[in-house]
Amino acid sequence: MTSHSGILHEYTFKKVAFQFDLNPNPTKILVFIGGLTDGLLTVPYVPKLAQRLKDELTWTTFQIQFTSSFNNWGISNLTNDINDIEKLIKYLREKYSPSKIVIMGHSTGSQDVIHYLLNKQTKTPVDAGIMQASVSDRSSFNINATEKGRELNEIAIKLCEEGRQDELLSYEHMKMSWNTPITAFRWNSLMNKGGQDDYFSDDLTMEELKFSEIQVPFLMVFSGSDEFIPKSVDKNKLLAKWKENSNKEFWSKHSGLIPGASHNVKEINLQDSLCSMVINFIKEFNL
Fold first, then answer.
1. Which of 13, 39, 159, 216 could make an S-S bridge to 184, C-beta 3.0–4.6 Å?
2. A single Pfam family, by name (predicted)?
3. pTM value?
């Protein structure tokens, strides 16, 4: 446990972002987005990443806390997430007029990143995106592996078909989603093929993948020993498939695996590898 010096910004009503230094006028900014159950300072490598970006590139790192932070993810969705992210981006652009803003997501934060980059309604663009631990929630939860899971899944699907997607599901559903209250929409989004969150599943075809639509530089950072990826998935083949689906102009040559790294790279000795991939990506595209 430790403390961190920085600045807490209220970027919109009752929502905050933490700046990992005291720079009064940051000119280049990385916005970090956590995954399911994350909030400020819950992803272990972020302070080190912020320090190295500051020391080596004079970049400033911000971490967003938004509607779906901590245990609110079950009653939110990617659309709400990118609306909050855009409010922070607008705040930062109006306050500092930075020359560059890059968004970086961890886990389901990676879904937020690709959703933001592809969303045509987003009026506040960013210069690049980074996706770390971009796992398939559908594969990780694997809700259809049991008869009970299939029964609960059918209930959620039926509610969505009836236009009742915002209804909270039962206690039984909650137990299967990390004891988190969850709506029919978010359940369907996470658990079923073609759901809003289903960007990274290994069984998606080249036509179903969306990497080719990304029109800014992006980096994929995969954890070699990610505990949320089924052992049946060949991570190197999956990365190669994503690369093949991408525009070569924007896919970073520094994308790849961190051998031995867990989902959130909690291994201190491996965090520098992640940081170096991010720094080399920024240098690669002169961001």
1. 159
2. DUF1749
3. 0.97
